[in-house]
Amino acid sequence: MKAKSAKHNPRPDEIRYYFRTELRPLAVVTVSGIIYNIGMTAGPYFEGQLVQCLYDILNGRRLFSDMVSLALLYLAVILTVQGMRAVKRFSVRHFANDTSRNMRRSLYHRLVHMSRAQLAQENLGSVMTKAVSDVDACVEGIRKFTTEVFDTGVVLAAYIVMLFSYDFRLALLSCAFTPFAYLTAGLLKGKVTRSSASYKQSAGRLNQATMDRVSHAVTYRIYGCEPERDKAYEERLSDYEKKAVLANIWENTMQPIYLIISTCGAVLIIYFGARNVQGTGWTSWDIAAFTTFFS
Q: pLDDT below 50 — which residues of the chain?
């Protein structure tokens, strides 16, 4: 019975607890996120239609008023989609702020109810790191995960469906590079995690050294230990700087490489898409289809 109740009642030390606590903003995020991310396919579609309309006007097949009507419709659709984006972003921020508050409340509640012996065993720098930077990092991870479920998952599904509806062979070829980018990121996941953990540990040691230096400043001055303590503090600070830079490098500088890999399919789209427009490819396209597919 206890195991069953634990399953249905997650505790504050479990991530799912914070998702269950904030079901209302998450429901708004879900609805607005689906509308917004599916609506993102409207941008490429209307770009293609506008280009085709301009081409037809130049060739005397359509009127300028057709372009104005199409542009107004495009504007109305994009405004609706961006409105849903604003609602989603606000709701995600609301969810993240509430999660940050709940996490800190759980952490402080635990600290307040710890015994004196348990508190004596806790490292002050580690506690400060948990209460400040670790909570922020965890909340940011939850926020990014919630955001990317829609901004990556839903939008990729919508784009893939749209691409396959135009030319499934070219869609398979152009999308084949994206899994390699994900695979590269997955292979580096361990390195990124280790460097980030090392950075957090170094931050805890630096916080401990800071509190020690401030709390015992008078004692160190009386006994002439200030130069030694200053040297030890500089070592902790130098270690923190190196670990922070290394963690930042592994986390952020690899993103352009992922982008390069995933966009290699654009070369194939230019070649095979041009053949489709010329009528010598796998399917027959007009300029609108090519522009939409490439976008």
A: 1-6
Closest CA to 54 of 260, 291, 222, 295: 291
pLDDT of residue 76: 93
Q: How far apart are CA 121 and CA 117, in angstroms?
A: 7
Tell me the two tokens of residue 51: 């280009």
* Alpha carbon distance 61, 278 (integer Å): 19
The confidence score (pLDDT) of residue 14 equals 76
b/e map of 176-199 (b: 16 or more CB within 10 Å)?
ebbeebeeeeeeeeeebeebbebb
The whole-angstrom separation of Cα 11 and Cα 24 is 19
Number of H helices, E strands in the chain: 17, 0
Number of alpha carbons in the 13 Å side-chain half-sphere of residue 182 = 7
Written as one letter, the residue type at 272 is F
Choose among 158, 52, 141, 62: nearest CA to 95: 141
